[in-house]
């Protein structure tokens, strides 16, 4: 059936209410119609011990005194969606705790998970990931996370060179990273992803190759490898503007990227997204929801949701987010029904064209590309027809491949992914 278009957030609630009721019991999984769409849930923890020089994420250093109130706000927001009937319309699929540095507030987070489990057992989500910073956890904390039901770790290593870690403002050392992976295994985690950043200032081909070698030697199930991007307003961005930051030339960056693909492929990893590699069966299920442009719910400051064509973003400012959540508390007790919670700062209802354009843009990040039949079923239109002109323009440039019912970026197209994707929106 073609994808529906929601015209206002009011109709989102109507959509929830129109779905068949589900039953949630503490001692078992949520039960309800299998026809419900899968939903990824993201929980944002915006606290960090210090701010890294390249980071423009919604994260704050030096505001730990707000943790108790913030965690209460997360609970309120989650409760609002649960009471709005979200689990009638969607079935829990993946759960991802990101940040910020979630592992920097572990005790409060574990207590929150316990409370959230009373609303919906965490085991209802088949993949449950947390991002951790190697400098913030040791074996006992990792064991606590495993016991709490977390079954996947995303470890922010970024580099195995201490000078690069210092330069970027990371709070951990290469030894911390090595130890963290070892202790995660001891704690029983069998699904570990490592994050690395290539093309850091001053990096050379040899230093990057050494980073890769060390990452592979640790045997993670998954690797996310992003090329450094300079985000406006960050210290790195300012240093670059002032001519104080020396970045690897573009040609070297491309060599690093190609070397990454070669080495990881040789080590048994499958490149399944522009920047992501996995052992067979170990792709990030949560991130694939974003790349497939499926539905997700974001809880927390600055978190985004995309629910049945309604895209909404929460306040990024902690005080405003928490003020919204406390209004929510009084509205819930007074029975006021709002279309979206007051933690939301902005929303838009995506029309059919936007949904199609964004799906293409996100799907093309996946190496398998766009399943043309699935696309037709979802949007009620053939991509080849709707974008005949764009395809005609891009095909002779060797940037796209169309075969076996899939449209995908060619190896050359992978290097120019942003430019190719822009043609479709
Ligand atoms: S730890 Fe992560 S979220 Fe926090 S400042 Fe560094 S890069 Fe940003």
UniProtKB/TrEMBL annotation:
Family annotation (InterPro entries): Coproporphyrinogen-III_oxidase, Elp3/MiaA/NifB-like_rSAM, HemN_C, HemW-like, rSAM, rSAM_horseshoe, rSAM_sf
One Gene Ontology molecular-function label: 4 iron, 4 sulfur cluster binding
Pfam families found in the cross-reference section: HemN_C (PF06969), Radical_SAM (PF04055)
Domain of life: Bacteria
CDD domains assigned: Radical_SAM
Coarse class of the protein's main subcellular location: cytoplasm
A GO-annotated cellular component: cytoplasm
Location in the cell: Cytoplasm
Keywords noted in UniProt: 4Fe-4S, Chaperone, Cytoplasm, Heme, Iron, Iron-sulfur, Metal-binding, S-adenosyl-L-methionine
SUPFAM superfamilies linked: Radical SAM enzymes
Gene Ontology biological process: porphyrin-containing compound biosynthetic process
Residue ranges annotated for the Radical SAM core domain, each copy included: 33-270
Similarity comment: Belongs to the anaerobic coproporphyrinogen-III oxidase family. HemW subfamily.
Function: Probably acts as a heme chaperone, transferring heme to an unknown acceptor. Binds one molecule of heme per monomer, possibly covalently. Binds 1 [4Fe-4S] cluster. The cluster is coordinated with 3 cysteines and an exchangeable S-adenosyl-L-methionine.
Protein name in the entry: Heme chaperone HemW
